[in-house]
């Protein structure tokens, strides 16, 4: 199915990409400082799947965000942000929990984000969500909604109905133990999800958290062995390595300037999805992923102004 | 016991005031703005009991804070803030939940705070807390820790052991339905706590949320009927009215300039406690409460630099 030289065949649908999961506020301290006195924070639109949807719209496809926010000021901020970007917010559910929030205090040492999970894990498999799923070509989700009930059940239903209806199932295995409830083996659970996934894009850290330290080739193989059909392992400055089980390709980074790595992974997904939807062969679509990621790396922020996908062709000689 | 003309007799103890409950971060938007674009927030030390403890130390007594914070950057910030003020932090518990956070986006209309409760409700009745309770003259708590388990059980144990050991039980009945878990009748529960309380200081809004709309005198009587020994109903610009069941006193505000009302109630408690501990008669202690509150109202912020209690005597002619 994922022959690198061929493009993917999608049925005609009116949504190209449905992202399901976290839509949240990132509260990030201003500048880098380890000073105790440091006390200003910026409020940002956040949540990796929502960022991918925003990027993909700018690149030229039709995404839809399915998420849950609280009936509060931060939820309103997120919904208005989507609407200002021209996004349909009909699949954003409003629930009686605080809008999920991540606080990041930047630091020269390791900045440890603090997760305040509220509305995001209250997402349910509504009739609207089911209907959107049947109308999309690709569905995307990360580990966030899998880490906790009741949204986990919603994602399980999404996967089941996606597979029954020929929707491409794409998963960001961004596993982190801090997201999981104490006492549950998140790694074990993720390994029950991977066999149902068409495309997974782990980073080296993700792979290590799931499978322990190993060579990139071995890590790829572990995902393939579990049944993932196309695995892309991103290697930071060393580019990426991808395999469909028959063929493995190694690709260099296209980045020339690295200003901020936040959102680089989401940018990769966005370029990949947009290129796949636009009918580029898988190998080219991976290059578009690297190109959009390289573009994003030049700028600060998780979501940056992206031009249409086609402009990347000449800029990055794809 | 609360004869207005007499001072309270305390046993000799090495802590004057133990505050038990919420210690949290307030993330407050900069300036007043309803603009969607508005995105800067200030991080503040917060939690009403902790503020009262900070104030009381500045006024000249020996307070101790018993709270729970997360093992994270915001918890560290709170603990360091206490330490810089010279406070003993041995009763601050460190738990595996995110440090509790309140996000307030200021607005010309009603700014609705969003509560992110984490560590604060994980406070437990440890041996350290029990030991501190037996060593204090006064114990203070608000509705926050009563709203949720397991900290509710800790407070119930605090109340029981305080009453057994002659510790004055003081309660801020700042009831708000948003704090309570859905489905539980918080008002009904608070009414089971009030009979065990020596001093309660509701605001008019608190009283209305608990008992419905009524005259100040009738509201006072409802608290007294439930068994509270001294009730102080604060009336904003109209001062306060207090009753011990035999005698009722009406006091005018001492405020001449109102810059920021945040923390005015905590300032009142702080002045009252400090004066009671320093041996002033109850009536005078109430005036010190109003004086410290009036002083605080001139400045911005929940906790302001307060001089020693005695300076208020001449400044406000007490």
TrEMBL record, chains A, B:
<keyword id="KW-0808">Transferase</keyword>
<dbReference type="InterPro" id="IPR029056">
    <property type="entry name" value="Ribokinase-like"/>
</dbReference>
<dbReference type="Pfam" id="PF00294">
    <property type="entry name" value="PfkB"/>
</dbReference>
<comment type="similarity">
    <text>Belongs to the carbohydrate kinase PfkB family.</text>
</comment>
<dbReference type="InterPro" id="IPR002173">
    <property type="entry name" value="Carboh/pur_kinase_PfkB_CS"/>
</dbReference>
<dbReference type="InterPro" id="IPR050306">
    <property type="entry name" value="PfkB_Carbo_kinase"/>
</dbReference>
<feature type="domain" description="Carbohydrate kinase PfkB">
    <location>
        <begin position="16"/>
        <end position="307"/>
    </location>
</feature>
<dbReference type="InterPro" id="IPR011611">
    <property type="entry name" value="PfkB_dom"/>
</dbReference>
<keyword id="KW-0418">Kinase</keyword>
<dbReference type="GO" id="GO:0016301">
    <property type="term" value="F:kinase activity"/>
</dbReference>
<protein>
    <submittedName>
        <fullName>Carbohydrate kinase</fullName>
    </submittedName>
</protein>
<dbReference type="InterPro" id="IPR002139">
    <property type="entry name" value="Ribo/fructo_kinase"/>
</dbReference>
